[in-house]
Design a protein that fits this description.
Length: 398
């Protein structure tokens, strides 16, 4: 275990951060879901004999004392994001081309004996690529980022890939999940849909898509910081900038095709978003620009062209995961450095969450491809998944 105390950087509010544990995952960890006395980690097998795809449960009296408890199998080749219902009874896992996996939380936490319920979002051949998921406050719907799912074709008959699926969830009389059905699919005007985040009141869904489609009508399409060309990821071809979309949840649940109420340019490869506790700011990780961007939630609806509030260097390369913590005062950024080569390492950067001018305050070294970061119930414990490093770093920060 490593113990790291981070130095305070000049011109920023003082911050202390300490790695207090490292949890081995026996595979590729994508996301960590902190719960009282436990954390559930989605893990995809890495090809080694002792590795398997599923949920690894760690329990303990404190974040620093978490130990591996049990392994919950899933019916999928990959597992990505995990969400929990507001009543804390249901877990929903985005499982790549397998769609969704539903679980009883109690059955997972208490011995990993849950029977997963699969909700298909399309055939395996259609490559939906379910990567992120969130659940409506009433637990009736799941909103799924299908990174590659086809929702329509263009004028030349080419598939337009990437959409948000709206899934109506069903339960038995004891409240256990029994299934789900797709009631709508929402195109965002861009490809590679990578994250879905609900507003604090549950009325809006914020969606990031990596690549804007030609001819899409977008706010801020002439603002150089948000809408420039030459977006590259590693050795890939140059592509257009990406998009942050706002979806009206009630309309989407009703199957209304007009549910996208605004869309704005959002830099190169925007891949994750996070909402401030006061609901006033949406933060976006622009992976291809090594930036974090801040947008006003009010202006995204009333005047999208004026919604951009500020930006900052992410404190590393290729930022992916985002989390707001410390009562909204801090922003945690998982800088993946995923295009830096097989031996490249990333970091966890901590920023003052000031929308007009966020400032880097500290940085913790990570291993290979840190991918997501989540916040424990105390608002100060961070869980960083090192996807290619095979571990979850537990960090205490203020």
């Amino acid at each position: 275990m490593r113990f790291l105390i981070l130095a305070v950087l000049a011109l920023a509010t003082p911050v202390r951060a300490q790695e207090i544990a490292a949890l081995p995952t026996q595979g590729h960890p994508f996301a960590a879901l902190p719960l009282p006395g436990a954390v559930i980690v989605t893990v995809t097998a890495n090809g080694r004999p002792d590795s398997a795809t599923g949920l690894r449960v760690f329990t303990g009296p404190s974040p620093a004392a978490l130990k591996f408890d049990c392994f919950q199998a899933v019916d999928a080749k990959q597992v990505h994001a995990i969400a929990i219902s507001a009543d804390r009874n249901t877990l929903v896992v985005a499982a790549g081309d397998a769609g969704l996996q539903l679980f009883s939380r109690a059955a997972v936490i208490n011995g990993c004996h849950a029977r997963p319920v699969t909700v298909s979002l399309g055939s395996a051949a259609s490559r939906q690529g379910s990567i992120d998921v969130t659940i409506s406050p009433d637990g009736r719907y799941a909103f799924v980022a299908n990174e590659y799912g086809v929702v329509s074709t263009d004028a030349a008959g080419h598939d337009l890939r990437g959409h948000v699926a709206i899934v109506a969830l069903s339960y038995d009389d004891k409240g256990a999940p029994t299934g789900g059905r797709v009631v709508g699919r929402v195109a965002t005007g861009a490809a590679a849909v990578t994250s879905v985040v609900l507003s604090r009141d549950g009325r809006r869904l914020y969606v990031t898509s990596e690549v804007a489609r030609p001819g899409a009508r977008l706010a801020n399409a002439t603002v150089p910081k948000l809408a420039h060309g030459g977006c590259r990821q590693g050795d890939g071809p140059a592509q257009p900038f990406g998009v942050l979309s706002v979806i009206d949840v009630a309309r989407a649940e009703a199957g209304d095709a007009r549910s996208v109420i605004s869309a704005t340019a959002a830099g190169c490869s925007p891949v994750r978003a996070a909402v401030s506790p006061d609901g006033q700011t949406v933060w976006v990780a622009a992976r291809g620009d090594d930036k974090v961007l801040a947008f006003s939630t009010d202006r995204l609806e009333a005047d999208p062209a004026q919604a951009f509030l500020g930006e900052s260097d992410s404190g590393g390369q290729a930022p992916v995961g985002l989390a707001v913590f410390a009562g909204g005062k801090r922003l945690a950024v998982a800088n993946s450095n995923r295009f830096g080569g097989a031996t490249a390492t990333g970091n966890l950067a901590l920023l003052d969450a000031v929308p007009s001018a966020p400032k880097l305050t500290a940085s913790i070294p990570a291993t290979h491809f840190p991918r997501s970061v989540s916040v424990g119930g105390d608002g100060q414990t961070l869980f960083l998944t090192d996807y290619n490093g095979g571990q979850v770093q537990v960090v205490l920060a203020n």
